What we know:
The complex is a heterodimer of chains A (461) and B (83).
Chain A: H1 9-15, E1 23-25, E2 30-32, E3 39-40, E4 53-57, H2 61-71, E5 77-80, H3 90-96, E6 101-104, E7 117-120, E8 126-127, E9 139-143, E10 153-157, H4 158-161, E11 176-179, H5 186-197, E12 201-203, H6 211-220, E13 225-228, H7 230-237, E14 249-252, H8 259-268, E15 273-280, E16 284-289, E17 296-297, E18 308-313, E19 316-321, E20 327-328, E21 343-352, E22 355-361, E23 366-368, E24 371-373, H9 375-382, E25 388-398, E26 402-411, H10 418-432, E27 441-444
Parallel strand pairs in A: 1-12, 4-5, 4-6, 5-9, 6-7, 11-12, 11-13, 13-14, 14-15, 26-27
Antiparallel strand pairs in A: 1-2, 3-8, 9-10, 10-20, 15-16, 17-22, 18-19, 19-21, 21-22, 23-24, 25-26
Helix pairs in contact in A: 7-8
Chain B: H1 4-17, H2 38-52, H3 56-59, H4 69-82
Helix pairs in contact in B: 1-2
Amino acid sequence: MPDSRPDTLRQALAHAAVRDSSVLTDGRRCVALRDLLHASPIGSTRAGLYGRSVLIAVETQYEAAQLVIDLDGCARRLLLLPPDVKDAHLPAIIRDAEIDAIVCSNPAAYQHLGVEAIFACGAGLAPVDATTAPAARTEWLMLTSGTTGDPKIAVHTLAALTGAIATLGATEQRPIWATFYDIRRYGGLQIFLRAIFAGGSLVLSRPDEAVADHLVRLTGEGVTHVSGTPTHWRRALMSSAVEGFRPDYVRLSGEISDQAILDALREAFPEASIGHAYASTEAGVGFDVNDGMEGFPASYLEAARNGVEMKVIDGSLRIRSSRMASSYAGRPDLAMADEQGWIDTGDMVDLRNGRCYFSGRRGGIINVGGLKVHPEEIETVINRHAAVRQSRVKPRKSPIIGSIVVADVVLLDNTRDPEGAKRDILELCRSNLPAHKIPALVNVVGSIDMTAGGKVSRQHA
Amino acid sequence: MSARLTIIAEIEQVAREQHKTLCTLTDDLELLESGLDSLCFAILVARLEDKLGYDPFTASDDVEFPVTFGEFVAVYDNARLAA
């Protein structure tokens, strides 16, 4: 492969020597990636989007994927709107991102926003000559996954987004990627870009699809590489449909990967490579860990690795690299990084015996009588119990000491004695945690809410 | 029926779990002398709410935290009568 990185996604597809068999599919529709080199899902409308800041607000990932391939290098800016963003946030998003064109499934729904150019997508592919057009360095705008207020918009370039992605040799097998994420968020976009840069296929998720049906589809498509959050994976492992699924590479990101989920995946996929990655919308891809152990080696903090520098200050992980977002669109008042270029990730790290362990988010701390508790460190202990598939620790207000911690647990279906399991879980906590971190109550629940981003819902945070 | 027996059972359970040595629970025993610390009481109140269906300390703003074990039981019994 040449050293030079492609300027646009179409160039990446061309460089990757994409095969005829490489496709983009969501199980209902399928398109050969090779066809997207010379065709557009919006046809002649494309010409009207040169140099514009385009909001892509289509209903499906399938259309969104084709549009970003088509418009990267054409638009000034692309903003992929995730499906879970509330309409009330749209005016602020349009203002901050300087959106002057919208491509959407239903133009009538966007008429009131004052954007001059609104186009419909959905008529199928039409041939275009994308190669002769002057390529712009399109800015990629990603919404951050904050919980309250208008979302912030991180400004990236294709080079920054793909800085961690290695290209394949011409003779290497092309991966068939799948992800439980939506590709309109950072974690899912990484997988989309990996598939494109490898000239492989991508099997998209569908929000209406049951976990078991999704796994059957991934098995049927012959998926080799698959990515999701630990929460996605815990749900997948609860389905018997996981038994027929034999991926070569299993990847986790987006939440803390504890030893319990890594071990459970190892047992479910004995032949697969299993890795967990650290990335955030703002800081980009930080690192991969492939030794099967939770946390990461402290040596990662000592020297730059693959262009990423890391350090821990006041307990939180700081990252500096060329893969970071450059700024928040429309918010000059917000600094992406400090004066030396470091981003404070807000992810808290403990150093023990030469290894760094994530203990939780700075903002997610529960205060128990003046003592700080990260819910994730308690969940990590609870998840070690053989009958536990998933857990969530949350605060419960106490008139006496502010808050105490309580735990919701999802037990394996075949658990015969839930009361005994609760006692065992408390015993496990008692032997591994100080008194203020032991849940006052353990509730057995049927399921634990998941956010649109595939993470455990923590509404108290 | 008084909540007394439920409260005693839960106090004993919390004391066991938190490895506290519990004094004999008489009505005039001061809670601070009982062997339980504030975390134990926080856990106790949460569990009693799940068992009895009410938490007298958050249900009303003017409930003062009781000093003796007898007062603690009375707070629960009064709250039940008021409910």
